[in-house]
Amino acid sequence: xxxxxxxxxxxxxxxxxxxxxxxxxxxxxxxxxxxxxxxxxxxxxxxxxxxxxxxxxxxxxxxxxxxxxxxxxxxxxxxxxxxxxxxxxxxxxxxxxxxxxxxxxxxxxxxxxxxxxxxxxxxxxxxxxxxxxxxxxxxxxxxxxxxxxxxxxxxxxxxxxxxxxxxxxxxxxxxxxxxxxxxxxxxxxxxxxxxxxxxxxxxxxxxxxxxxxxxxxxxxxxxxxxxxxxxxxxxxx
Length: 237
Hints:
alpha/beta; Rossmann fold
């Protein structure tokens, strides 16, 4: 009997870390659903991976449009009936973000809506499919800037982004507790300061290096749960 392939969905997979994670998972034998807000850019990215002979499909998800997550979940249910891995990678860092004493409320609100509320919507839509897999995992791509106990990087005193990652970590903690007796492991991962569009390609790591810990945690067997991890160990919440 042929083994059923594992299925992963990655948000924001058209570029950067998400694209590299999609590539590496597909190379490991997974079916990868690569989501992006822009259908044009998403399909272009998927075409590149398919040209490498990889099992990757495009799925439309826009974190600012929660209904897109519900549609993606229904399409995934009809085609696969399950989801083994959800990687919440998509997010924004706005140019008008700034220190808490000065940043505009609209900037904070929009960042939180995309990075946190949008991710909650995607996660809730996919939970029935994760439960159907028998054993599944959620990896939330966070940041060291979301730690409440670590000093903030002086170059990144930006309330909206940091608060959104702290909120994402709370999602990890509460989901891990909610499913503590279930079949879904939930972790936050800090990929490290990686050169991507998010930081104007100023990061010190390559996308392969940034993807490494996400992949390691996603492929752990047996998995851990309720952790905030980075290459080299755990980060204090």
